[in-house]
Batch of 3 targets.
Target 1
Amino acid sequence: MKNIINKAVGLMCFSFAFPVLSANAEVKFTEAAVPKNLHVYSTGGYIYVDHLPGACSSSRYIVDKSHPALDTIVSILLAAQTAGKSVVLRYDGCVTNGEQGNVVGVYLK
């Protein structure tokens, strides 16, 4: 019986915590603009791009090297930057002390 109660309490705690976690991961969108300064800056392999500022404190965005669509995102950003075409960035929050948007997607505009 004690095991069932512990599982129920754990499930309730998870249920209450889940909306808080999902609220922090709300996907946001930038306005359309031509990406600039696409680069790999650190030895960690993270890719950075400058774009219009969104909800974060700078206009720099980061594409995590573990993103499953990393190659596709970088390809679109590189093509858009080279051709001078606008893109919209999708990001799910601010990282590095709230400065940089964490890119989760991109599309041509």
Note: The chain has one domain: 26-108.
Target 2
Amino acid sequence: MTLSPSRKPPTYTRSTCHLTTRTAAKTQTTGERTEMLTRKVVFYKLCVLADGATSVVHDVEWKDRLAEYFSSPLLEDRKFELRSGDELVGWSTSLALQAILGRVLDGSPGISTGNWHETAAIPITPATDDEFLSRTTYLQFLSRSNVVAMVGGAAGRPSLGNIEGFVERIAPLDSGRHWKMVPVTQASQVARLKSMKGATKATIKTDVQPGLLPPDDDGYQQSMDYMVQQIAHNLGAGLRIELKISIRNAGDNPDSTIALKQSLLNSPGILRDAKKVSVDAYDEMRDEIVELIEHKVTAAFEMPDQDVDGEATEALVLDGLADVCKSLETDVCNAARLGH
């Protein structure tokens, strides 16, 4: 894919389904600081809900379903109504597996405008009564899987229920069966950390309550559990802790990297209760970011936070979504296959 010259490709972390982003960057030509806007991409499995049970479906050709839906020449033919009474309409993009999905509004501001008698929408303010405004979200189905990626438009995004309704429109199910979007999650990688040689960085987000400090049992005082419990004990209050640890000159301090790894593995409280434990680990073959808490798989990309016209903004969003899906498709599909 040819990227727009006004932005850089996303920067991905190592061996993980997360992306790193910068909030600001300098241009090479003028040296001026350009603020960057980060757009979040979320991934969902499309499952079928029937009789209270959820099952995974793998045999839907989403490209064919989208092509059939978009074959109708008029937006009027692509409009459909949800049980809530909201109206939705979809537009195609240059990629066969992408879709722009809009919830039709009456007079409220939105990112796109369309005309029921035309085939496309333009991201500008409507000028006539024949045109409508639509809050917009952007979807991309991952080929050969039941996974869809989603990023919201500037004016918000439809709910998951609206997106399930769109999928129901392009791939209707039998009576009593409904599409349900389930977040793609990545399982805890504690076993992976155990197999690594050491850790150079760790990021921890957890809540801790004060209590009696237990005796030093099996090296407990060398654990992260003990350290955060000591802080709560000393302050006498429940705490929300966000902790970042980085070993300086890690290559010259291998014993410290092993100690950091063990302090995390010897912390059952943190591994049970923390919201996030992300570790930069290494062995003889590679460096790797290891996530010790099961979490939703997300990604992000950057685009300039500046005054550009609606069509240019939409092109950046669609390009960014395509880049993320291309780079992470294998990892995300594996996570979806292994997830619960």
Note: Residues 1-30 have pLDDT under 50 and may be disordered.
Target 3
Amino acid sequence: MSKRKKRNFDTENFRLFYQIQYDRIEQLETKRENFCNYIITISSAIIVLTFTKEVNLTLLNKTFLLVFIILTNILVIIFIDKTRLWVKMHQKRIKEGCKRHAKELNNINNYVGKAESDNDFFRRSRIYSYVHSLIILFSFLLLISENHLFVNSQ
């Protein structure tokens, strides 16, 4: 195989590798955002439904629904952390691929730099975690309040 064909082959392979990594990052971030939005919507609907006067739910039903909200939002926070690890892995693959196969691209990336999100208190994944933490806190307070009202009414 001539040097020119080998270089074109390597360049094409790297381009595909690079694109696949960014496609995977996009898919992970889309799944994370969709899952977060679904759970926020479901949690909000359950909270509204649970405390609407027209819907007569027993204390047991309300307790079950609030515990369900708490547990699903905890799972979302875990999912957010896990997807971040996978995103970081794909970013490291891209960076290493650039070092080995695309020196010019690597030089540009090094020159421009990257926003350091690891220490960012308000990065996107943390903002989602904060929202879900607030839903957990709110649901927990409602759970305490409902059970407190029940105990005091007897």
Note: The chain has a mean pLDDT of 85.
